[in-house]
Amino acid sequence: MKKNLLMWDETLFRDPEVFEFDYVPEQFQFRDNQMRELAFQIQPGLRGGRPLNSICKGLPGTGKTTSVRKLFSEIEDTTKKLVPVYINCQIDNTKFAIFSQIYRKLTGHLPPASGTSFKQLFDAIARILQKDAIILLVALDDANYLLYENEINKVLYTLLRAHETYENIRIGVTVIISDLDVDLAKAVDPRVTSVFRPTEIYFPPYNIEEIREIMQMRVMQGLYPGILSNEMLTLVVDQTQESGDLRVGIDLLKRATLNAERAARRTIERDDICGAYIISKYLHLSFTIKTLKDEEKNVLKALAEASLRDKEMNAGDVYKSIKESVEIGYTRFYEVIKKLDALRLVNLQYREGKGRTRLISLRYEPQKLLEHLS
Predict the structure, then answer these.
(1) Fewer CB under 10 Å: which end of the chain, C or N?
(2) Strand order in the sheet with 135-141
(3) pTM (whole model) above 0.85
């Protein structure tokens, strides 16, 4: 029996990095067409011109971010004159924060934390681009997070019209969007649309055969042989397809392996996978809640608590019950509700009657929301 147990210093992981979300695999499968289209859009920048603008659109976990980061890595290995900058808009979702990351890419450090105006910051970026004849390529990942405070217009306008103020500046933008309901052409101002003119590149969901091959490759790279049987791999693939997000499957493999290690076993069993899935299937919820501001978390918490009491929630009644505890005005409250709806945390519906009643329902169990909020 002891032969089948792990020693205290042994591990089932050959390479744990393979199961991290920012890992970029050397062999990136099933996105050749999208990669070729992206490369075509970027190509003018490699020849000294302005890169063409793109929108990478698809559900979460369909390879958009990995495609862009892989191409950016290849650009960095090829030239110093085209500088790609990747921005995670879940984290950096204001104009100043985004341009601070661009400044850091160009200089190696962030601008001073205080006492720097946006004009000073952008002047400094422009001078570097002019002095070193650099062409800039900016990727705005999860750009739908810039829509709620109208930051998208401010960011795109500044980037795409910079050449009108600063001579010889060339900037291209790649926007990554995971919300298929967002129509960026309608969401941005006409003054932005006139210079943006992007090509849309669609990333379809992976089918079950593709999911299996991707998972099998991760297992081969990340785990020692014999750790995961074909039967257990099939269970992982089925649960990944059910979630509709490849990241859930990758997280599931990592957690299931840790469960087996905790039990000091040399193989992953069904209970390890099923126990891991209980956590991994709420990956989108966990990620999204982390991006919310405190005020937005407080509103979501109040909605979860209200849904435990009331079968039907209309916006007016909910606001009356929470306005004092959350300390929020109705206009701002409704802006938060619309954002929570766009982030797929709640459903906002309208019912016609004497007036137009806004009905709110939760997309997750209230207990699960409260658990993640705490």
Answers:
(1) N
(2) 82-88, 135-141, 170-177, 54-57, 199-202
(3) yes
**Domain 206-281 shares a fold with domain 288-373:** no
CATH code of the domain occupying 32-202: 3.40.50.300
Which tokens hold the place of 27?
Answer: 């062999």
Q: What is the mean pLDDT of residues 2-16?
A: 83
CA 325 remoteness from chain centre: 31
DSSP assignment of 230-283 equals HHHHHHHHHHHHHHT-HHHHHHHHHHHHHHHHHTTBSS--HHHHHHHHHHHTTH
Question: How many angstroms separate the Cα of 25 from the Cα of each of 36, 167, 323?
Answer: 17, 39, 48
Residue 3 pLDDT exceeds 60: no
Domain boundaries, the chain: 32-202, 206-281, 288-373
Q: Is 194 helix (H, G, I), strand (E, B) or coil?
A: helix
Fold entry, domain 288-373: Arc Repressor Mutant, subunit A (1.10.10)
Read off the tokens for 175: 């926007």
Q: SS3 for 111?
A: coil
CA distance 104 to 191: 28
163, 169 in Cβ contact below 8 A? yes
**pLDDT tens digit sequence for 301-332:** 999 998 998 778 888 888 988 888 888 998 89
**How far is the C-alpha of 357 from the C-alpha of 314, rounded, in Å?**
7
pLDDT, tens digit, 9 for 90 and up, residues 332-342: 998 899 888 87
CATH class label, 206-281: mainly alpha
- pLDDT tens digit string along 39-53? 999 999 999 999 999
Contact in structure between 293 and 362 (CB atoms under 8 Å): no
Sign for the CA dihedral angle at 290, 293, 297, 300 comes to: negative
